[in-house]
Write a structure and sequence with these properties.
single chain, alpha+beta, Sulfite Oxidase, Chain A, domain 2, five-stranded mixed β-sheet, 8 helices, globular, binds ligand MTE, binds molybdenum atom
């Protein structure tokens, strides 16, 4: 009998919803291609499949059509139906600049980066600060693997992510009152937490441009705005970055932005959330239900506004 240590985001076979059947069929193909938009070759491990079934038994998977047609992506639009416009965003070639407090700053092609990591699938809940939520299967690799590859120096305390600014393809950039580029950041401890993830695929397919393709951040215990899309630069910094939403409205959006049902947004409650697709309202959970994995990161940080 196979006995395997389950982590918090794994779930027993018995808890799998019918949607899993579809997902299972896609998985073999999906893990192989999920990270690679244009026929590159990823080192998707065959042994990734058995550990791939990870999501909350309380939540069915969101239907793909909802997750890919109701998006937040201000570089395109402040409306939710930007997915059509996003189709024109070139996904290849794509390079990532790694700089700051690292031993060897470099520019790396996405396909070369993907040869150096092991792709896996993670089913995570996603909680937008606007109080809608979804549960989706990402393909990608732990952010910790990128940190390791970057080889930061001891001065590095934060990892900062910068989104593409391609005015030709991103009409939202014409809203000049926003402080482009979209910047987000986490501490090194957060970046190397087991949950912090870099996604290059969704539902076993290449990550759609409207969801942040070809490469985005996924931090499931934080409000969705922390999970920057279309990443072009990763900077290792000594000081805390000024992030996009914090710069726009510091009274409403902070650096930590951990999910907490007890701390309302200044303009609305965060106690419950609306599930994309069914529109069912369910209670919000502390750290979006991932306290077991992440609460330790914030021990002793009593002076910080951890939940906004
Ligand atoms: N570059 C960039 N990243 C972004 C955003 C954005 O406007 N621009 N919106 C954020 C917000 S508010 C959320 S909720 C998620 C939405 O991701 P999804 O569209 O894949 O659901 O992306 C986040 N990442
Ligand atoms: Mo969001």
């Amino acid at each position: 009998m196979l006995i395997r240590q389950r982590r918090g985001w794994d779930l027993p076979e018995s808890a799998v919803t019918p949607e899993h059947a579809t997902l299972g069929r896609r998985r073999a193909v999906g893990l192989a291609i999920g990270g690679l938009a244009f026929g590159g070759v990823g080192r998707a491990r065959a042994d990734a499949a058995p550990t791939a079934r990870r999501y909350d038994p309380d939540r069915p998977l969101t239907e793909e059509k909802f997750a890919t047609t109701y998006n937040n992506y201000y570089e395109f639009s402040t409306d939710k139906d930007l997915w059509r416009a996003a189709q024109r965003l070139p996904q290849h070639p794509w390079t990532l600049r790694i700089e700051g407090k690292v031993r060897a700053p470099r520019t790396i092609a996405l396909e070369d980066l993907l040869k150096q990591v092991a792709l896996e699938e993670r089913i995570y809940r996603h909680r937008c600060v606007e109080a809608w939520a979804m549960t989706v299967p990402w393909t990608g690799f732990p952010l910790a693997a990128l940190v390791k590859l970057a080889d930061p120096t001891p001065e590095a305390r934060y990892v900062v992510f910068e989104t593409l600014t391609d005015a030709k393809h991103m009409p939202g950039l014409a809203m000049l009152w926003y402080p482009w580029p979209y910047i987000e950041g986490v501490t090194i401890a957060e970046a190397t937490n087991e949950l912090a993830f870099i996604a290059t695929g969704l539902y076993g397919k290449p990550l759609p441009p409207q969801n942040g393709g070809p490469i985005r951040l996924v931090l499931p215990w934080k409000y969705g705005f922390k999970s920057a899309k279309a990443i072009v630069k990763v900077t290792f910094a000594e000081t805390r970055p000024a992030t996009f939403w914090e710069a726009i409205q510091p009274a409403e959006y902070g650096f930590w932005a951990n999910v907490n049902p007890m701390i309302p947004h200044p303009r609305w409650s965060q106690a419950s959330e609306r599930l994309l697709g069914s529109d069912e309202r369910v209670p919000t959970r502390l750290y979006n239900g991932y306290a077991e994995q992440v609460a330790g990161l914030y021990a002793g940080k009593t002076a910080e506004k951890l939940f906004m």
